[in-house]
Protein: Homoserine O-succinyltransferase
Organism: Salinimonas iocasae
Amino acid sequence: MPIRIPEQLPAQDVLLGENIFTMDSLRASHQDIRPLEVGILNLMPNKIETEVQLLRLLSNTPLQINVDLIRIDNQAPKNTPQSHMDAFYHEFSQVAHKKYDGLMVTGAPLAHLDYEQVKYWSNMQAIFDWAEKNVQSTLYLCWAAHAAMFHHYGVNRHLRAEKISGVFEHQVLDQHNELLRGFDPVFFAPHSRFGHIESAQYSGVDGLSVLAESSDAGAYIAASDDKRKVFVTGHPEYDPETLHEEFQRDTDAGLSPVVPVNYYPQDDPSQSPLVRWRSHGSLLFTNWLNYHVYQTTPYDLNSLSGSDSPSNED
């Protein structure tokens, strides 16, 4: 089944070129089913690139999905045309009355700021609290995962002197967990961050479990037992060239970045990246939509209020 996205969103042409089925609002209105309502709170500067990455992963499911793109505030984005924001994004105040089956919150380039120094931190706190009652399951990526841990549980990250950058080997810790269904016991995933929370800190929170981790990059996937919160500290959505573009950007800025680990053959940036994370990234999103969203969400979203709502599944 397709994902429903706004007409003329640039991501639509990219996805259609990859033979990914999307539909516009008119066609979706003729589908006699209850689609999933998914919000994407996009905090990344290059919003168009992030849209394509996330929508690509959401598309690999038999479920029909309605997507709302959400912005954190009305400030002009750094690397996205204002016309794009005006055409395709909702301010949070415009959707705060809605209830969602799923919400995705992206990372953000805010590594060296304390949370209270982030200009929209109060907005983030309001959204975190709103999601508790209005979203069946929320998937937090990278910076958002750390920010949510701090807000909900008081667990603060620490900043590493050297950035964790590269494609790291991970181990599945709970092979029977639905979120990891179909995963190989060992798999690869990209990371790009300074912030770090130890696996023991996740596990030390009552009701949270670490499901996959890396001996080098630490905890990768943690989730609440009630399936309402999923914390992913890496970037399964990244395109093949994303880490290279980050490395080149920081090099050009004179920051002397570390070469992303296990990314280039022989760690040689002149060679094309070795891509080995996309299948598991796709599977992670599919499992989240199926087991944490579709099979737990109420058919009538207006009844959503807690973790024991009746299932959407027949």
